[in-house]
């Protein structure tokens, strides 16, 4: 029973991180109909920024903040220089460009930091103190809940959020109403990059370490989470993230830890075949 | 090999009426022409393998192995518009089958590898036929990253992270006592590549090729025209999987070992990159793609050794510079020249020809 | 006074296909111009060009004394052109209130934007009752009111209205057009109305232009178009 509780709590914590990363994917998908396959590589790049800044200043929090600022810049640059050019092209082009970005970013990171695993420690202890929950788990949970609160507020309560939602749903109508849709798209990328960076900052300390490909598996898990929840639904992404997190924790704990990518693959395939619009979609809402 | 795919090019640029008319006259003997070209290229290559050193033969063999996979992938992506980021996993299926059947004659274990990859491809393809764009890419990506998980989960069979090693029987004694193994490897992989290219080159020139393009260009119109879109997509996926199985088996032959690291996400992404850089418009792009994959690493090594950098930095650059160039090239190609290398070369040749033609007029 | 909108020799199209050829027309301040014509005559293309969604290949668009050709879509609404697209363009995922607020977001004068919003709720009462409903829950008539209302929140000087009668019961169309006419009367709003439904368009128009295969076939006061049977038969088919 203890083990079950431990695995559940661990799964929920990981799940919140997947949820955050899935949210980043959903943000870009809703705004531009592109799944940003480079999200993982972009996020890892920002964690390297945190690594360098923390290393130079000795402050985890300074590194944390610089990573988020770096993510915003990276998101803006990539949208303005690259993503914008494939916006009206077939989906293949956007995916290929994203793959190009993955290879490029990972290679550049390898050039600067080598392909060794670097230690990127957590700011709080990761040892469980109560009911399988560690101080770091509480931190992760708090950050993601705060993030969800901020995003919800932004999208439902502010004029900027209204503009961003309108641009995503109906770009042409939004332009006719005076909304700068191109700007909203850039902001969407910025926001997604920051959210993705946050997720990576939270997840890397629980992994083997910092590595150019460290987010590959997380990307697949988060993509699965987003598909489980329906790529269009932020709330679905959060729920999907929790489902994936808990599932992986059980598979890792009760079956074997090597098998978790297979569990993700299985879940993804089942959902895509049975409920392609996501578990919470109205059936036949959209073709995949 | 590169000459062989020439004919496919005319098929893909069919809108240009004069060329299209020119090819219809030759239509009846497409197969004969392809075999002829293959034979000529084959003879030239065989002679070449005697002239070059073993290392070059090994590189040639690697090109051959890539050429078993890439044409099928171009068929899948360029002709039906499906995106797979998971063909590295299908190659792993072929490679591991070969590694697990060391007692069979190589040809049979190779065929077994093709069979396993084909079956796996059929399973994925049936699922994939219902998916579009990013969903398919994401699902195949999940397949790609699960290769190491499969090998470690079933490490009793697949040998875990370390993988498996096996011995390949050397070249037949009848070829001579000092026949280099690399030349033998090159012969085998290039023969495999020739078979793949021949089959697919004929296929894309056939009715089926037109069906594929119809599905890519407009799915709804294709299905209204009576094409069973789902079946066509599955078939294309299965064909490309068979090619991947063959290519994987060839890679096993080259390395005489298999390990999950060699067939992970990186390989899958490299395959995607090769076909995009080579050109998705026709099978000929596969040749460029294979050459690019094999040639870029030595080129990058040469470039970094030319730099006057300290050894540590040089070592770091060696592993990463090709990928950085590849990644940047992918982005540039996709945003500025979606036809890839093949289109660039074709355009350059055409301009050259045009310049030559206009010269007399100038005089 | 010069007309609010003057279009001179406008030509445009998609690729090699010319949809509009040498179209010239003008809309007087405070008047309602009806652009009539069969399906495919280029009516919607005309509106899309006027609001900047399509770039013309030749010709001039003078609005309020300035050439607005090439001005970005999202900037034109700031100059006073509001376009209600065909098929109503309600953002189905947003609520009525959000849709309406969207129309005035660009305005600096928040208080006046708020006042404009209140006026629209007053003008189109059914919308006030459905503030919190999401776009796709609305009836056709409510959607039409919403998109017209949303355009009015911007306090435009020129309203481009594309097929407001499409898919609506005649009674509902008449109701909406009557409210609109009343609004024009009270505020001096200028309207360019594109319609296939000639009867309802001419009921509120001052002037009519008939487009036929991308060209202006005739231009006449609405009263004349209504009464001249020969013209009606020749160009409008009833």
From TrEMBL, chain A:
Pfam families in UniProt: BPD_transp_2
Family the UniProt entry places it in: Belongs to the binding-protein-dependent transport system permease family. LivHM subfamily.
Keyword Membrane: yes
InterPro entries assigned: ABC_BtuC-like, ABC_transp_permease, BCAA_transport_permease
Protein keywords: Amino-acid transport, Cell membrane, Membrane, Transmembrane, Transmembrane helix, Transport
Entry keyword Transmembrane helix: yes
PANTHER family with a match to the protein in the record: ABC TRANSPORTER PERMEASE PROTEIN (PTHR11795:SF451), BRANCHED-CHAIN AMINO ACID TRANSPORT SYSTEM PERMEASE PROTEIN LIVH (PTHR11795)
Compartment(s) where it occurs, according to its Swiss-Prot or TrEMBL record: Cell membrane
Range of residues in the leader sequence: none
Name this protein carries in UniProt: Branched-chain amino acid ABC transporter permease
Ranges that cross the membrane: 12-29, 36-54, 60-82, 94-113, 133-155, 176-204, 235-255, 261-282
Domain of life assignment: Bacteria
Topology term for the membrane: Multi-pass membrane protein
Broad class of where this protein is predominantly found: membrane
TrEMBL record, chain C:
Key word Transport present: yes
Signal sequence interval, chain numbering: none
Pfam family, one: ABC_tran
Family: Belongs to the ABC transporter superfamily.
InterPro entries registered for this protein in UniProt: AAA+_ATPase (IPR003593), ABC_transporter-like_ATP-bd (IPR003439), ABC_transporter-like_CS (IPR017871), BCAA_Transport_ATP-bd_LivF (IPR052156), P-loop_NTPase (IPR027417)
GO MF terms held by the record: ATP binding
UniProt domain ABC transporter: residue ranges: 5-238
Keyword tags: Amino-acid transport, ATP-binding, Nucleotide-binding, Transport
SUPFAM superfamilies hit by this protein: P-loop containing nucleoside triphosphate hydrolases (SSF52540)
Protein's UniProt name: ABC transporter ATP-binding protein
Coiled coil: none
């Amino acid at each position: 029973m203890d083990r079950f509780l431990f695995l559940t709590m661990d799964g929920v914590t990981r799940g919140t991180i997947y949820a955050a990363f899935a949210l980043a994917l959903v943000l870009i998908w809703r705004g531009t109909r592109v799944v940003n396959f480079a999200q993982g590589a972009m996020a890892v790049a920002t964690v390297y920024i945190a690594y360098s800044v923390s290393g130079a200043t000795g402050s985890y929090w300074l590194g944390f903040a610089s990573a988020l600022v770096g993510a915003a810049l990276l998101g803006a640059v990539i949208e303005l220089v690259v993503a914008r050019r494939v916006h009206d092209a077939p989906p293949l082009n956007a995916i290929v460009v994203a793959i190009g970005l993955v290879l490029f970013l990972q290679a550049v990171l390898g050039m600067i930091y080598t392909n060794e695993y670097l230690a990127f420690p957590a700011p709080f202890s990761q040892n469980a103190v109560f009911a399988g929950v560690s101080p770091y788990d509480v931190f992760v949970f708090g950050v993601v809940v705060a993030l969800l609160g901020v995003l919800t507020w932004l999208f439902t309560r502010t004029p900027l959020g209204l503009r961003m939602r309108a641009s995503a749903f109906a770009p042409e109508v939004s332009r006719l109403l005076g909304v700068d849709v191109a700007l909203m798209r850039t902001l969407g990328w910025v926001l997604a990059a920051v959210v993705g960076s946050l997720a990576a900052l939270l997840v890397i300390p629980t992994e083997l370490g910092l590595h150019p490909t460290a987010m590959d598996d997380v990307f697949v898990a988060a993509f699965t989470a987003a598909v489980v929840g329906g790529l269009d639904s932020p709330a679905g992404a959060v729920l999907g993230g929790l489902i994936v997190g808990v599932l992986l924790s059980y598979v890792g704990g009760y079956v074997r830890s090597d098998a978790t990518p297979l569990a993700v693959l299985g879940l993804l395939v089942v959902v895509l075949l049975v409920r392609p619009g996501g578990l919470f979609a109205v059936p036949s809402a959209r073709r995949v | 090999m590169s000459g062989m795919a020439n004919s496919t090019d005319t098929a893909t640029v069919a809108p240009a009426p004069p060329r299209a008319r020119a090819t219809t006259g030759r239509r009846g003997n497409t197969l004969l022409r392809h075999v002829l070209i293959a034979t000529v290229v084959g003879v030239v290559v065989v002679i070449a393998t005697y002239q070059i050193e073993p290392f070059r033969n090994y590189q040639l063999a690697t090109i051959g192995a890539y050429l078993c996979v890439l044409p099928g992938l171009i068929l899948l992506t360029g002709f039906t518009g499906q995106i797979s980021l998971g063909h590295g996993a299908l190659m792993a299926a072929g490679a591991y089958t070969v590694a697990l059947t060391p007692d069979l004659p190589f040809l049979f274990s190779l065929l077994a590898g093709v069979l396993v990859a084909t079956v796996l491809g059929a399973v994925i393809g049936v699922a994939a036929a219902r998916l579009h764009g990013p969903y398919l890419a994401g699902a195949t990506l999940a397949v790609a990253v699960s290769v190491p998980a499969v090998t470690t989960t079933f490490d009793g069979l697949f040998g875990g992270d370390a993988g498996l090693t096996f011995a390949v029987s050397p070249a037949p004694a009848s070829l001579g006592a000092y026949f280099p193994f690399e030349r033998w490897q090159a012969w085998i992989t290039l023969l495999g590549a020739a078979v793949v290219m021949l089959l697919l080159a004929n296929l894309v020139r056939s009715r089926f090729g037109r069906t594929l393009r119809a599905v890519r260009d407009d799915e709804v119109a294709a299905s209204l025209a009576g094409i069973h879109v789902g079946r066509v997509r599955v078939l294309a996926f299965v064909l490309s999987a068979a090619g991947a199985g063959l290519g994987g088996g060839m890679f096993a032959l080259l390395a005489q070992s298999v390990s999950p690291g060699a067939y992970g996400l990186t390989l899958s992404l490299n395959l995607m990159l090769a076909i995009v850089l080579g050109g998705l418009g026709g099978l000929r792009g596969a040749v460029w793609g294979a050459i690019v994959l094999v040639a870029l690493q030595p080129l990058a090594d040469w470039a970094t050794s030319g730099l006057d950098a300290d050894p540590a930095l040089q070592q770091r650059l060696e592993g990463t510079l090709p990928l950085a160039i590849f990644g940047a090239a992918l982005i540039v190609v996709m945003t500025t020249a979606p036809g890839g290398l093949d289109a660039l070369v074709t355009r350059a040749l055409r301009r050259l020809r045009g310049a030559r033609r206009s010269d007399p007029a100038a005089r | 006074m010069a007309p609010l909108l003057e279009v001179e020799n406008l030509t445009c199209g998609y690729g090699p296909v010319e949809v509009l050829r040498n179209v010239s027309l003008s809309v007087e301040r405070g008047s309602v111009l009806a652009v009539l014509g069969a399906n495919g005559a280029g009516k919607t293309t005309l509106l899309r060009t006027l609001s900047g969604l399509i770039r013309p290949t030749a010709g001039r668009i003078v609005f309020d004394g300035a050439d607005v050709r090439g001005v970005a879509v999202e900037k034109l609404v700031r100059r006073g052109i509001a376009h209600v697209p065909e098929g109503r363009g309600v953002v189905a995922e947003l609520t009525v209130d959000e849709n309406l607020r969207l129309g005035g977001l660009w305005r600096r004068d928040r208080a006046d934007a708020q006042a404009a919003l209140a006026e629209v709720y007053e003008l189109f009462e059914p919308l006030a009752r459905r503030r919190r409903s999401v776009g796709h829950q609305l009836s056709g008539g409510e959607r039409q009111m919403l998109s017209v209302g949303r355009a009015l929140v911007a306090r435009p000087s020129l309203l481009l209205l594309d097929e407001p009668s499409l898919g609506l019961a005649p009674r509902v169309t008449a109701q909406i057009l009557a409210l609109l006419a009343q609004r024009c009367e009270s505020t001096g709003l200028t309207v360019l109305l594109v319609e296939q439904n000639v009867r309802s368009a001419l009921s509120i128009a001052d002037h009519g232009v008939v487009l036929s295969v991308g060209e202006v076939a005739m231009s006449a006061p609405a009263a004349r178009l209504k009464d001249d049977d020969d013209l009606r038969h020749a160009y409008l088919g009833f």
